Sequence to fold (283 residues):
Amino acid sequence: MSSESVALSLDSRPSPRPRRRILPDGVMGMLLFVFTEAMLFAGMISAFIVVRSAAAGQMWPPYGQPRLPFERTAINTSALLVSGVVLAFAQVAFRKSPKRARIPLTIAILLGGFFVGFQGVEWVALLRQGLTLQSSTYGSFFYLIVGTHAVHAVASLGGLVWAWTRLIRGRLTATAFATVQVFWYFVVLIWPVIYFRVYL
Amino acid sequence: MTSRRWIPVLVLLALVALPGVAHACPVCFDPRDQNRAAFVTTALALTFLPLGMVGGVGVWLRKRLRRLDAEVDQDAPASTDAE
Fold:
C-alpha cells in the first residue's frame, strides 16, 4: 500500500467523537472520597448497633451516664438540613449568575457554623455530666462517631468558606463549587443517620 | 491408586462438614435474638452499601453519558445527509 493510499484511507475514516467530560475531575475525586468516608461511618454505626443490641434488656444509657439531648439536637439537625437546602439554592443561583450565590452561600455557611458551635456547647454540657470517652462504651461510641462527623463538618465548612472567599473575588469556578458542595451534602445527609441511630 | 482418588472427595467433604462443628461464628449461637439480628442486619448493610453506592454512580454516569451523546447527535450538522 502506497503512502498516498494510506493517507487517503486515513482521511476517509470518520472523525472521532469529541472527548467529553462526563463529570469534573474534582467532583469525581470528592465522590470517591465521600464513598470511603460513608463506609467509615457505616462501620462505626454498625459497631455501635451491635454493642447496643448486646446490652438488650439492660439499662441504656448505662447506669450513671446521661441521656443524650435528643430534643435539643433536633434544632441543630434542622439547621444542618436547612443549610443543605440553602446550598442547593446557591448552586441554582450560581448557574444564573455567580453574584446571586453570595447570599445563599453565606446563609449556608452561617447555619453550618451554628451546627458546629451548638455541637460544641452540647459536648461541654455532656462532659460536665460525666459522659467522657472513658466513662463507658456509650461515651466512647458517642464521641467517636459524633466527633468524626464534627471533624468532617469543620473541614467541609472550611471548604465552603474557601469557596465563599473565591466567590467574593469573582474567581470561583463551577467545578470547585460543585466539589465543595458534594462534601457538604455528605456531611448533611450522614447526620440524620447518626442522629436517629446514636441519639435515639 | 484408587485410594488416592478418594482424597479430594474426602477433603471436599471435610471442608463442607467442618464449618458446622467449628462454631467459628461468635454470634450465630448467641441466645439473644436482638444481638443476632443486629449482626445480620449490619453485615448486610455493610455488604450492600458499597455495591449500592458504586452501582448508583455507575447507572447515573451511564445515563449522563447517553444524554450527552444525544445532545451531540442533535447539535451535529446534517451535512452527511446532503452529501
Remarks:
- The mean pLDDT of chain B is 79.
- The first helix of chain B runs from residue 2 to 22.
- Chain B touches chain A at residues 32, 34-35, 37-39, 41-42, 45-46, 49-50, 53-54, 57, 61, 64-65, 68, 72 (CB under 8 Å).
